[in-house]
Specification:
Layout (H helix, E strand, L loop, with lengths): L10 H4 L5 H10 L1 E5 L3 H13 L3 E5 L24 H12 L4 E5 L8 H5 L4 E4 L4 H14 L3 E6 L3 E7 L7 H4 L3 H5 L11 H19 L8 E6 L4 E6 L1
Parallel strand pairs: 1-2, 1-4, 2-3, 4-5
Antiparallel strand pairs: 5-6, 6-7, 7-8
Helix pairs in contact: 3-9
Length: 236
Amino acid sequence: MSTDTSDNRYSRQTMLPEIGIEGQRRLASATVAVIGLGGLGSAAATYLTGAGVGHLILVDGDTVSLSNLQRQVLYTEATVGEPKSATAAARLAAQSSATRFDIIAENLTEANADSIVAGCDVVVDCTDNYAARYLIDDVCARHGCPWVYGSIGATDGQLAVFNYRRGVRYADLYPDRAALCALPRVTAGVIGVVPGVIGTLEASEATKIIAGFGDVLDGRLFTIDFKSMQTLIIDI
């Protein structure tokens, strides 16, 4: 993996005092797990690759379906039926030869969670269910790893950072674990840009954590209503 930060590739970042050469080196040395490669993960992984993160672990056990293409922009009609993790890695590798990709063609489970998160600098949650998020919360707490939470509705989204300096957990936001995990999973509609925006914001928070700048959403919940464009940040 190249850590050369003097060329033109990252010049629009390194000229920023918030990042500079040192911040770019931190990005190049970082390991980030993107868990879930749907609409959120497509955007998050694309912008983390573009930012110069050196090692991305791509975790998803699903395959591409035609109905994904409205919002999951890493995929094309030609990749329908293909594994998301391998397809995403191939697309992202064409974007950046400097990034190493590990493909985990499985969903996150109790059996594989520790091996995936161990050694990560940040975990980016791009899943779509409570059980997966509680598992991420547990395993990141065990490994002392901050994680970025993103969630969407039809026309709204949420974003937060957990297990960072304030030590706030996902369970502090949603304490009713048993009840929430027991809810049936349903397929709901969503405007395609909603996960794109939230996933991009997740990549922004991860970049801030790694490069060490800005006001991270540490134990704070950001919400946005895309119909009204009203936003709110609350302490958890």
